[in-house]
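Project standup — Tuesday

K.O.: blocked on the structure for the chain from last sprint. Re-posting the sequence here as requested.
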Amino acid sequence: MATLTGFTSYVFSVAFNRTGTMLAAASGDKTVRLWNIADPARPKLLGHALTGPANTAYSVAFDPAQPVLAVGSADRTVRLWNIADPARPQRLGQPLTGPASYVYSIAFSPDGATLAAGSTDDTVWLWNVTKPAAPSSLATLTGPTDHVYTVAFSPDGSVLAAGSADGSVHLWDTSTAAAARAVCSMGGDPIDRAEWARYLPGTPYQPPCG
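H.V.: unblocked you, prediction finished:
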């Protein structure tokens, strides 16, 4: 149908937007390019190549809920762009930092609220990106004993999977209820009725870990 060119190095990752009308590609030349592929036989380059990563751009992902593109890089960051006008993408805030090595894979949750990044520091990082201009860190997941090369959310967003160079795939339950159960399991003895009445007089007894 078509061959898209313009890069000067390897293309490591490609991604379609939710409607399938836009394609992003990340390259070892530190850039990302966007094409309008509403007519796949006649793709149109959108604007100039996106720059910013100081090293290989390894991964790209479109937010399914907002006009946002995420780019993971070997410079140990994830950058977000507003692509409401895809011919003139605008950088959003400062790069997301934390990983101690390459960000090799990124994925948005199906509702677009969470961004996951797999790093070659053997970890998975999670950020809340409901406000993409001001994202916040949620968690750093451990377990793999070697590079994390790929991450993906289940279709309902309740499970996060990460594939590692240690030959394993790790699964995490990302639901709020699961997190609450985990916190309660580590919180020691639950508050009893006497303690509740002492510290919360006049409030009906409803212990969070009861």
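K.O.: great, moving the ticket to review. The chain has one domain: 11-174. The helical segments are 176-185, 193-199.
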